[in-house]
Amino acid sequence: MDSEFRILVVDDEPNSTKLMRKILSAGGYNADEENSSVNALEKISNGDYDLVISDLQMPGVSGLDLLKAKPQHTNFIIVTGFSSVDSAVESMKSGAYDYLSKPFNIDEFKIKVKKALENIKLNKQLRDLKNEIDKNYSFGNIIGRSRKMLNVFEMIKNVAGTKVNVLIEGQSGTGKELVSKAIHKNSLRAENSFVAINCSAIPENLLESELFGHTKGAFTGATENQKGVFEQANGGTLLLDEIADMPIHLQSKLLRVIENWEIKPIGSDKVKKIDVRLISATNQNIKELIKEKKFREDLYYRISTVSITMPPLNERKDDIPLLTDHILKKLSVRYDKNFSIDAEGLVFLMELDWKGNVRELENVLERTALTSADNIIRKKDFKLSVSGSEHLSDGISNITGGLKELEKIYINKILDENNWNKQKAAQILGIDRKTLYKKIKEYNLE
Question: For a designed S-S bond to 195, which of 128, 233, 425, 444 qualifies (C-beta 3.0 to 4.6 A apart)?
């Protein structure tokens, strides 16, 4: 049912509008009819309808006049008994989504209406995506304010509404699966399945079955038919994580699947059509693997119509305060606590060398939060959570504005969150009130 859309059919011949409305209602659509083009002009101008289906030739106000009056978000299908190329071209130039010639074929009418509404849904989703990044610089569960992460957000927005295959590259722990889920969640497939499989975690002799499925008796231990992940994800999105670890002989089979979007389960002689949005991820350099003959070049180009590179945490240390705040809020909910971190502790985190990326940051914060004396994490509390000097970087040159700017931002944040209760803020920050007053004056925070 597509009752969420409002459709208006316009024709000066009542029999024509009644027929179109009857077809639309039978298809589950919410449709109104109007035989006065003058009245229709007012309704269309008000932006009350998602789709208008209008006759071209009408007395007083023509279908072309109605088309020119429509709001930007409204799709328009012109119906004309004068099926000349000129009238169709003119209507398309003026912003019509499509046109129909009288007498129209009912099946063709249904198809064009369906496509017009799908186009409306896609455009709405893309408009919503442009506003997805909120004031905390988040995109779903992905957090960041650095230029590199904002570029990632932009890439997600650009590819989410398309069908192209996407390759996500980056070190372990950078959030590649979060990006794939964000693409799925913000696509037209969002209501269908998201299926993920780690190609490196499955034994080579079982991976083909996991991908394409098998029939009962296909091999020893195959006691029943089993769907592979391609079939499980049919209509939705499939993530092939660590695709670079896929054996070379399976790469050729995967290539054939992507070329034809057909699978054949092990032990079956029947081919099944599939409709899957494919996202692949890797922490390896596939181009180097191609040179070493460990990865097929033709498969690489098939899976990487668009590539997104996740930056390591050490290249976006500006994001550590945001990430820390986000992680501590999640931990507070999980453990029914109110975890926070003082400024000195936050500075310490930004001085570390995060070889394990965001995943390591999450683990360190969780261990430290659970062992802190009063739910306020301080620098000294990290002694049990980091192994020592081998983690320390050469400095904090990646921090925009330096420590002073970081301290100013963090103190202001704690004050705002506590309604400028200076005593409480000082306690959370791990400093006395006198020092806090000096910092407020120094940074002109009043």
Answer: 233
Which residues, other chains included, contact 241 with Cβ-Cβ below 8 Å and sequence gap of 6+?
Answer: 176, 177, 196, 197, 198, 199, 200, 280, 281
Q: Any idea how long the chain is?
A: 446
Give the residue carrying structure tokens 């705040």.
325
How far does the chain reach from its first CA to its final CA, in angstroms?
56
Residues 371, 384 contacting (CB under 8 angstroms):
yes
Residue pair 353/314 in contact (Cβ under 8 Å)? The answer is yes
Instruction: In whole angstroms, give the CA distance from residue 319 to residue 151.
Output: 14
Q: Do domains 142-311 and 315-442 have the same CATH topology?
A: no
Instruction: Kindly tell me the sign of the dihedral angle through the C-alpha atoms of 334, 336, 337, 340.
Output: positive
Give the Cα separation of 446 and 437 in Å (integer). Answer: 10
Indicate the pTM of the whole model.
0.59
Q: According to the CATH classification, is domain 2-128 in 3.30.930.10?
A: no
Res 126: pLDDT:
47
Query: In what helix (H) or strand (E) does residue 273 lie, and over which residues does it extend?
Result: strand 272-273
CATH 1.10.10.10 is right for the domain spanning 315-442: no
Return the DSSP state at 310.
Answer: P
Check: CB of residue 237 under 8 Å from CB of residue 194. yes
Place of tokens 């054996």: 247
Task: Give the pLDDT confidence of 235-270 residue by residue, as tens digits.
Answer: 999 999 999 999 999 999 999 999 999 999 999 989
Check if the beta carbon of residue 364 is closer than 8 Å to that of residue 386.
Answer: yes
Q: Please, which pLDDT band fits residue 443 given cuts at 50, 70 and 90?
A: confident
Distance of alpha carbon 182 from alpha carbon 199, whole angstroms: 21
In CATH terms, is domain 142-311 a member of 3.40.50.300? yes
